[in-house]
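Morning, I've got a small favour to ask if you have a moment. It would help a lot if you went through both lines with me. I owe you a coffee for this, so here goes:
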Amino acid sequence: MSFRTALEDGGSCLTDKEEIHLLTYNPETAKSVHQGLINWFGQRTRDDDDRAIQAVFKSELAPNDILVLDMTPEVNGYQGSTGFRHDSLTRTNPGYFQERDISVCLLRAFNPESIMMNPLRKDTSKEILDHLVLTDSVAILIQAKDSPITEAGLSRSLDRKRRATRKEVDDAIRQINGAARYLGREAVARLVVGGEDVEVSIGQRQIIGLAIVKELFDDEGDVYATACGKLAGLRGGGLVMDYNSFHAFTHHFTAADAFISALHTLIARMRTGTWFPVKHAVLDGILDLIDNISGQKSDTPTLPSPR
């Protein structure tokens, strides 16, 4: 989409002649500013919104009814792919798009043949979960839940969004545990992936569960820590992430060993019963910071204390 846009300043600090000073860079200062912005955004008032700089779309510069079709092998090589994907700004049925977004993320760390999207039980033709990732050491069971990306969905009250997230987390965990029980009791699980028969034997692999939802809320950490505990029955445990954190996670850990090692470290931290915001570790670059300070580069990251 392309629009001619006007910036309308309702009274920001740029117009009231307030003095603006840049802080001297320090990693701790940067993290504090980032956290302060998160807190301010969540607690902002109507007056704050009225004073904000608005980007107003005035007129279209290009047609907006364009189909985005991606047929590149690099992002369509996983098992279960149709060889192409299409995209849309408005997602009334988000499942199709999110499943393929997650597949592309996984391709940053894993070989295409390790990734199965939408595996079905051969005996019932029922989907067991969104993604199954198999390596020599682990089986990662991924279930994502998303909400439609529409104007109505974006304008929902914060309370409704919170309740929707809790339900999505519970539903995803329930499906992961169900898939784990099925795969665990079958010496050889007979699946269908992309119309092809696939036989899967979990064997001695650690099973890790990963529930991905659209958004998490910083002040509901206890809820998410409890949710992670519901995946503790898996041999490798499990995590809850929002999609943005998962997206950044796969950009940071672009090798299978590093990805798995980081998951193990995060899961061990969650098992203490204290919620650790994954997005802080990934989006703020804390893992790199810790490695650089210690002077030791390792595939197993050391996570900072929760904020």
